[in-house]
Amino acid sequence: MATSAGRPLSLQCRPRIRLAKLANCPCNSMPPAAVRAASRSTRPSSGAEPAATTRRKVPASRLGGLQPGQLPGNPRYFSSTTSDRSGPSGSKYVYNVAASYIAKGKPYDPTAHVFHFNPYNRVQPPKPGREKSSRPESGQDAFFVSRLGTNPGEVALGVADGVGGWMDSGVDPADFSHAFCDYMAKTAHEYKPGQGSALTARELMKRGYEAVCHDGIIKAGGSTAVVGLLSENGVLEVANLGDSGFIVLRLNGVHTASEPQTHAFNTPFQLSVVPKSMLMRAAAFGGAQLMDQPRDAEVTRHRLKHGDVVVFASDGLWDNLFNQDILRIVSQAMAKSGAWETTDSGVQVAADLTPYTGLDKTANNEATTSKSGGRPIVTLQSTIASEIVGAAKSASMNAKLDGPFAKEVKKYYPHEPWHGGKEDDICAVVVLVSEEEAPIKAKL
Q1: Hey, is 438 helix, strand or coil?
Q2: Which of left, alpha, beta for 251 (phi over 0: left; psi -120 to 50: alpha)?
Q3: Where would I find the PPM-type phosphatase domain in this sequence (predicted)?
């Protein structure tokens, strides 16, 4: 009998290895093949699975009464998918980014488990024999944030959640997810427009995955992935594969939210590298024909507005907090700071967000305290990230209050006595969108 947080659960928690079709797989040219460990060891599973689904609809109640793409009369709402790349004349978009994270079973310290993004910092390329001690304490979750090419106004970011089922095969899932994010960060940072194919969110995912497949150190593993590109014109493009995801919050409402990609309950889409020996054993015993590649990622584009808050996160967040929980945390932080103001005409965004988003000039990608006085660096975006992760951490350890994962268990297995949260690694990257006047270029 398996247990979780001291609570008995009769569902088997063994990972399932399944044979995958390898047509056009970037790993075909090397022994590791793109076959996946089909489920996470931290999620309950059963030999009799429910019917497979590729997409789960988000109820309108979780979107503040709006489905993505629905346009109400209020002019502050936009379609969640648009091809318009042009922004308002005389303005530019600035993306203020911070992340927070904590590994499963570790105590959470909001002053230590935080990352402040500085677009002018150099991205360190992946190194052979990576020191695990240099990784953030995010467990099997990994993330990256990088400027896109030489333009500090455009940003690439993403979250990868290592598949825990690989641990039963003696593989550390964190090796795959962290290397994957390292390669995507390097690719984004070195991107040069006009050289080769355009770098889309899906293409960035593809290049990172191909690099992992050809990395001799990564013998096996897998992860889900959500990757985003933020343009200087206020457009967010996202490629989402699996059950990590994102949400866009706007003036006390959920503007849009991603839907998880799953083959069945507890079986998210995922990218994988599998040793040849494991491939042969899986083929001998048979298995479901599954194939998850970057081309399977769902791609959406979203027009952002001044004052929007975007959250990218692993399933450690989504399994423990509902969208309305996240909205409540963000709304309280924005209102308390004054970034969202209540006026006679309703909630409005402060015209200037720089007093809330400014980062100490001594900050860098490694440090979380300033060099003058050792005070923790606090920005509005880091406060939101820390409060979201802290709330998810608390909910994951609450054995009485049912979260999203518990409700999913009851949906598929109504007789199972699962209650409370789901302990897992948690990682969240928060973007606070600011629209500012573009500098006037003097005519020579």
Answers
A1: coil
A2: left
A3: 119-433
> Tokens in use for 174?
């964190």
Q: Is the pLDDT of residue 404 over 60?
A: yes
Q: SS in 3 state form for 67-126?
A: CCCCCCCCCCCCCCCCCCCCCCCCEEEEEEEEEEEECCCCCCCCCCCEEECCCCCCCCCC
CATH 3.60.40.10 fits 13-47+88-437, yes or no: yes
Q: Which of 22, 56, 32 is nearest to 262 (CA)?
A: 56
381 and 96 Cβ atoms separated by less than 8 Å:
yes
Top pLDDT among 284 and 160 is at 160
| Residues 233, 85 contacting (CB under 8 angstroms) | yes
User: Is 1 a residue whose pLDDT tops 60?
Assistant: no
Give the residue among 365, 424, 434, 370 at the shortest CA–CA distance from 114: 365
pLDDT > 70? residue 205: yes
* Spatial CA neighbour of 36 closest among 54, 12, 20: 20
pLDDT in tens, 51-82: 333 333 333 333 333 333 332 333 222 233 33
* Residues whose CB is less than 8 angstroms from the CB of residue 424 and which lie 6 or more positions away in sequence, other chains included: 42, 104, 314, 315, 316, 319, 320, 396
Domain ranges in the chain? 13-47+88-437
Amino acid at 282: A
Percent of the chain residues past pLDDT 70, beyond the cut: 72
pLDDT for 122: 80
d(CA 268, CA 279): 20
